Amino acid sequence: MSPNDAKHCERDEDRVEWMRSVLDRREGPLLRYAARILGGDLERARDVVQDAFLKLWRSDRFGSGDDAAQWLFAVCRNRAIDVLRKEKRMIGLSDEVKRNQAAPEAGPQANVEKRETAGRIGQALAQLPENQQEVMRLKFQNGFTYKQIAEITGLSVSGVGFQIHTAMKTLRRKFKTAGLVA
Amino acid sequence: MANKYTEQELTAFAIGELDEPRAAEIEKMLASDAEARRTVEELRDVGALLTDEFAAEPVPELTSAQRRRIESPGAPSRQPIQLQLRVQLKIPLSVAASILVLIGLAFLVGKYWPESEPAIVRRPVNPPQIDKRIALEIKYPRVWPSGTPGVVDDPHVAIPSTEPPKPIYVPVGTVNLSRDQAVLSNSSIPADKLKVITDGDKKGATALDIGPGLKWVQIDLGARAEIYAVAVWHYYEVGEARAYRDVIVQVSDDPGFTKYATVFSTDHDKSAGMEQGPDMGYVESPSGKVIDCKGIAGRYVRLYSKGNTIDDRNHYTEVEVHGVKSAAESTTSPTPFPTSTAIPDRGGAVFISGSM
Lengths: 182, 356
Prior knowledge:
The complex is a heterodimer. Chain A is mainly alpha-helical. Chain A has 2 domains: about 1-95, Rna Polymerase Sigma Factor, Chain: A; about 110-180, Arc Repressor Mutant, subunit A, CATH 1.10.10. Helix content of chain A is about 75%, strand content about 0%. Chain A is elongated and about 55 Å long. Chain B is an alpha+beta fold. Chain B has helices spanning about 5-15, 20-30, 35-55, 65-70, 75-90, 95-110, 190-195, and strands at about 135, 170, 175, 185, 210, 215-235, 250, 260-265, 290-305, 315, 320-325, 350. In chain B, the strands form 3 sheets. In chain B, strands 3, 4, 6, 7, 8, 9, 11 and 12 form an 8-stranded mixed β-sheet that branches. Chain B has a two-stranded antiparallel ribbon with strand order 1-2. A two-stranded antiparallel ribbon of chain B has the order 5-10. The chains are: A mainly alpha, B alpha+beta. Chains A and B meet through helix 1, helix 2, helix 5, helix 6 and helix 8 of A and helix 1, helix 3, helix 4, helix 5 and strand 9 of B.
């Protein structure tokens, strides 16, 4: 084995490890995100996420110093929208998703009050426009910044800020009425 | 002077999205605006409720076949290559031979050779499948006499197991990155005393008392790293049953932990003021607690606790952060730690359970 080959192998091993760690961290969040766009269709979401990771192999993201989360979300989003377009079945998220999403499992200390609270939060969320639900999830479920959300969704940064502000305003009002915030 | 900020700016301020100078300006203006302060608090409560709600959603998984395909790096390029081969085999042998002769002639006379297409098949883009993970070796302190720790009578504290802990598999090259690294805390303990937390001494006698209530210690790894395990020994005495409350471990790239990932949390009732934790409490023992962090990337590791089942004090004997420095390490000088001990903004939280 020449020194060059050895270098290649070392880099390849690093690349495999990197890919595995990205997969461990991002598999679940990406599946949730893609499934919502696809109306709760988890099987199709799995195909979309698999495609995104295979595309990651072919990309030059390795060694860029990040874990490609934002890139993967953007790829999944575009791919999921393509799937919907091709199949001409642009369906609303709210009802379908609610049917397909399993209810959160009750923990050992779960009680009726907690389930009711979760139900009220979920209900208020489901009543938001879909674009607001999407940016709220990217922010509060996946921890992206306004700038990152803008890059994933193709919105402007100020557009993301406006959508999140509007959603927060609506939810604050609803949560106050429901007694969830003081 | 009237306060000048828009509602939208106030939302961005509440969830940590404003740049630092503007956030400081608004903070100043809020000092004289009780109503706006209340609004900010309510918006933060909304953010916290949403984070909790989202964190409770089930996490779907790929199928094992899909995972294998992704982890098997040959997959993306193999299929097209095989397809191409099948097409070529359908070409009659005579035609194929003619093509080869023509190509050979063209090469010899130097009339045409596409520079962009190498004559030799390129090295595959993706490497062969490898598995270079090994079980993480933790050096546990020796105690005499040894024995299973006692049971803490609390439904949120696990009954100590007599089985050895499950191994954590880590990449070759994983090391203890926290050894002798700088430690900071929200207690009044000076930095030079906090050094015992990363000095490699795990004997319970060297445990440091950092005070009562919710306390944290924070380790700066010096550069961004992929973190595979955090091991923590609070304090134990042979024969006693002691479990620390609200043991929370977070990782961040930001010394102020405005955004962080929680890798372990026993805070079942949110009494630490953060997300609800899914992990069971545990009884202190010479085995400490080794948390699988699955390669999460970050530079700072923060550990919280809020007293223990015997008294309200918080102790640390040793903390180890096992990982690999990231390929693209930060070349900037370390950012100074903040002096604030405020509970981190929950807006950017990503909840990751460290329980296996």
